[in-house]
Amino acid sequence: MAAPIVPGPSSVRPPGTEATEVRPGLTLTVLGCDGSWPGPAGAGSGYLVSGGGTSLMIDAGPGTFANLQRHVDPASVDAVIITHHHPDHWSDLYAFDTQARLALHGRRVPLFAPAGLGDRARLDRTPTLDWRVVTDGDTVRVGGLSCSFHRTDHVFETLAVRIDGPARAVGYSADSGPGWSLAELGTDLDLVLCEATYTSEHEGTAGHMSGRQAGEQARRAGARKLVITHRWPTIDAASVVAEAEAAFGAPVEQASIGKEFVA
Ligand SMILES: [Zn+2]
Fold first, then answer.
1. Which residue, 19, 113, 144, 221, has fewest beta-carbon neighbours within 10 Å?
2. What pairing do the DSSP bridges indicate for beta strands 5-6 and 139-142?
3. How far is the CA of 154 from the centre of ligand 1 (A)?
C-alpha cells in the first residue's frame, strides 16, 4: 500500500497542550511489559516512543493507559501503533478511546495496525481513532518519526516495527518465535526492544523467544543496546536476563514499568 503520511504534531494538537521537546535521540518509556497477561501490579505490553517532536504509543495492553498518564497527557500522543491481534497488546484501546472522546474535541488519532483489528475490537467506527491498515514492508511517517513494519513469526499477522528519528533508530520485535530474524529491522539499530518471554527450557512450547534466543538474535543483528521484554509473570526475571547476556555478549536490561531508555 502507499505509505500514509501523518502531519507533524504542530498541526494537530489542540490548544493548551505542550509540544514534545525536540531532541536528537529517541526515548523509550515502558508503560507495561508483562507477557501474555498482566502479573500482580503489572501491565501488558505498551511503550511510549518520543523523538523529533513526536510521540507514539506502541501497543496498548491492559494497564498501559493508566501508566501513560504518569508521563504525558494522552492528548499529546500523535499516533498509536498496535502490533497484532492478541489483547495483551491492545485491550486498553477502550480506555484510550473513551478518554479521547472527551479530550480531543473531535480530533482523530491515527492508529496503525494489521488488517481486521478495528473490527475485532469493535472500535472500527469510533469517531476518535483513524484506523490505517499496515502490513509487512510498509513505511509510514508520523511527524518527525518514520516507522517501518516487518512481519514476525507469530500466530496472527504480527508486525515488528523499526522507528527512525532524526539521528537514532529503535527496533521493537513485538511478539515472535525464533523463526524470524531481528536483522529484518536492520543491522544499525541503536536500541532493540526484543521479546524474551521465558527461559531456554521453555523453547518451542509457544510462539515466543527465550532470553537466550533474544540475545542471539540481537547479537546477530548487531544491536548496540538490548532491552528484553514480554516476560511471563511466572518466569524469573534474573534468569532470563542472565541467559540473554550470555548470548548477546554484553549487559542486557529487563524492561520494567516506568523505566526510560534513551537511544
Ligand atoms: Zn503478547
1. 19
2. parallel
3. 10
Does residue 141 form part of some domain?
yes
Give residue 35 CA to ligand 1 midpoint distance, Å.
5
Phi and psi, residue 215, nearest 5° = -60, -40
Q: What is the pTM of this model?
A: 0.90
- How do residues 12-51 score in pLDDT, each as one tens digit? 433 333 444 444 799 999 999 999 999 999 999 999 999 9
pLDDT in tens, 63-84: 999 999 999 999 999 999 999 9
Ligand 1 center–CA 59 separation, angstroms: 10
**Ligand 1 mean position to 83 CA, how many Å?**
9
Q: Is residue 125 part of a domain?
A: yes
Ligand 1 mean position, distance from CA 6 (Å):
27
Does a structural domain hold residue 75?
yes
Count of domains in the chain? 1
Q: How far is the CA of 258 from the centre of ligand 1 (A)?
A: 19
19 CA distance to ligand 1 middle (Å): 31
* Domain CATH for 200: 3.60.15.10
Residue 15 lies in a domain: no
